[in-house]
Write a structure and sequence with these properties.
Elements: H1 2-12, E1 28-34, H2 45-59, E2 62-63, E3 66-74, H3 79-91, E4 97-100, H4 104-116, E5 120-123, E6 140-142, H5 147-160, E7 165-171, H6 174-189, E8 193-200, H7 208-217, E9 221-225, H8 228-240, E10 249-252, H9 257-263, H10 265-268, E11 272-275, H11 283-296, H12 302-321, H13 326-333, E12 347-348, E13 354-355, E14 358-363, E15 376-382, H14 384-387
Parallel strand pairs: 1-3, 1-4, 4-5, 5-6, 7-8, 7-9, 9-10
Antiparallel strand pairs: 2-3, 11-14, 12-13, 14-15
Length: 402
C-alpha cells in the first residue's frame, strides 16, 4: 500500500513518475526496402533480409518486452515505388524503421518522407554522401560506405600508383553523379586530371559505345562510377575491347564481394576496390560469415554485414531509449558507440554518418585463391576520420560550420 501512497503523493504534487517502456502497437517493426529482382539483387537483396533476421535473433527476438518483426519489399530501383511502400509501411502497417535502401534516388526520397513522419531510416545500400550532407535529416542515418569514402580509398590508391588521368563511365542517376563528383575532387586534389566522362542508363547491357569513348580518351584509369550488374557487365565488355590489355586500368569505384563472385576471379583479378567488411579478415568476421553462409550459401559483403550491424544497433537504441519513438531513438543512435562484427570503435556523428574504418583490397588472381570465396588481398586500412567527412564539413545544414 505504501507504494501506491507514494505514487499518489507524487501525482498530487504535480511531479512526473518514471516513464514506463513504451512500444507503439506492442511490436517493433523493421522494414528492409531494397532491390530484390534487378541490377542490385545480389548487392543487397534478399540476402540483406537474412542479415536483418540474424540481428533480430542475436538480440533475442524481443525489445522492451515486445516482439520484433522484419518485413521486406522490392522497390525496383524506382523512387516513386519506394516512397509509396514507405508511406504504406509508416501510415498503415506500423513500421518503425526502414533499412538498407539500395539506390540513392530511393534512399533520398524515403529518408525525406521518414523525417516528416519522425521515423528512423538507416541506409546501408545507397552510397551518395548527400544522405548525411545537403539532404541530411534528424532521423536519417548512413551506416556503410559512401561516395566520399570510396573516392578516398580506390581513387586515392590509383592516383598514388600513377593513375593520374581518368575517364568516367557513370550511372545516370544521383549515386553515379555523386561518386563521379567525389572521385573527381579527390583525383584533382592529388594532381590528377579528368579527361572526360559519359553517362549510361541504369541496368545497361551494352557498354560498347561508352567503352570506345573511354578507350579513345587515352586515360590511364577508367573509373566505373556504377555498381552491381552494371559494373560487372562493363568489366566483361572492357576485356572484349582489350582495354586492360591496352594498358588502361579499370577502377571499380563501387564493387563488392557479391559482384566479384558473380564475375569470377578470371575477369575480376587485379581490380582495386574499397569495402568496409571482408568475411576473411579475422576470426570474428569468419564466425559471422559462416553463420550467414549456413542460411544463404554465400558469404556476406559490406552491404549485408552493415545491414546486420544497423538493425542490431537500432534495437540497442530502442532498448536504451525505452521507446520506439523515432526522435528519441534517433537521439540514442547518436549517443551509443558501435562495436560489432561490422565496425569496431564506430561512432555516429550529429549528421547521422556512422564513422568506421574502411579497407582497400585487390582482387586475387585465380592461382592465388586457396579456398572458396578467398577473393581479396588487403592493401591498406583507411581510418574512419580520413574516409568520411566530419559533421562540420559534410554539408549538412544542421551541423555546418557557421
Amino acid at each position: 500500500m505504501k507504494r501506491y501512497a507514494v505514487a499518489a503523493g507524487l501525482l498530487a504534487a504535480g511531479l512526473a513518475l518514471p516513464a514506463a517502456a513504451q512500444v507503439s502497437g506492442n511490436v517493433v517493426k523493421i522494414g528492409v526496402l531494397n532491390d530484390q529482382s534487378g541490377v542490385y539483387a545480389d548487392y543487397g537483396g534478399k540476402w540483406s533480409v537474412e542479415a536483418a533476421k540474424m540481428a533480430v535473433e542475436d538480440f533475442g527476438g524481443k525489445v522492451l518486452g515486445a516482439p520484433i518483426e522484419i518485413v521486406s519489399a522490392d522497390h525496383q530501383n524506382k523512387p516513386d515505388i519506394g516512397s509509396n511502400i514507405a508511406r504504406q509501411w509508416f501510415d498503415v502497417d506500423g513500421v518503425d524503421m526502414i533499412s538498407e535502401l539500395t539506390t540513392s534516388s530511393v534512399a533520398l526520397a524515403v529518408q525525406a518522407l521518414a523525417a516528416e513522419k519522425h521515423k528512423v531510416t538507416i541506409t546501408s545500400g545507397a552510397v551518395t554522401a548527400d544522405l548525411t550532407g545537403k539532404a541530411c535529416s534528424p532521423t536519417g542515418f548512413h551506416w556503410a560506405f559512401d561516395t566520399h569514402a570510396l573516392a578516398v580509398g580506390t581513387g586515392g590508391a590509383l592516383v598514388d600508383q600513377g593513375g593520374d588521368t581518368w575517364f568516367f563511365l557513370t550511372a545516370d542517376y544521383a549515386f553515379g553523379y555523386s561518386l563521379e563528383d567525389q572521385t573527381t575532387k579527390f583525383v584533382t586534389s592529388k594532381g590528377g586530371k579528368v579527361l572526360g566522362s559519359v553517362r549510361h542508363p541504369l541496368n545497361t547491357t551494352d557498354f560498347s559505345s561508352f567503352l570506345l569513348q573511354a578507350q579513345a580518351s587515352g586515360a590511364k584509369v577508367v573509373g566505373l562510377a556504377n555498381a552491381g550488374l552494371d559494373t560487372a557487365n562493363a568489366i566483361k565488355q572492357a576485356a572484349e575491347f582489350g582495354i586492360v590489355a591496352g594498358g588502361q586500368k579499370l577502377a571499380g569505384l563501387l564493387f563488392t564481394l557479391a559482384e566479384v563472385h558473380g564475375l569470377g576471379l578470371q575477369a575480376a583479378q587485379g581490380l582495386v576496390l574499397t569495402e568496409d567488411f571482408y568475411w576473411d579478415r579475422n576470426d570474428e568476421s569468419r564466425a559471422f560469415a559462416q553463420r550467414f553462409f549456413a542460411r544463404t550459401q554465400r558469404m556476406p559483403n559490406s552491404v549485408q554485414a552493415s545491414e546486420y550491424s544497423s538493425v542490431l544497433q537500432y534495437l540497442k537504441a530502442v532498448q536504451a531509449a525505452g521507446t520506439d519513438d523515432g526522435d528519441k531513438v534517433a537521439a540514442k543512435l547518436k549517443e551509443l558507440p558501435v562495436d560489432d562484427v561490422f565496425a569496431h570503435g564506430g561512432k555516429v556523428q550529429a549528421d547521422g554518418r556512422m564513422v568506421h574504418d574502411m579497407y582497400l583490397f585487390q582482387v586475387k588472381a585465380p592461382g592465388d585463391s586457396t579456398k572458396p570465396w578467398d577473393y581479396y588481398k588487403q592493401l591498406a586500412t583507411i581510418p574512419g576520420d580520413q574516409a568520411f567527412l566530419s559533421a562540420e564539413t559534410s554539408g549538412c545544414p544542421a551541423t555546418a560550420k557557421k
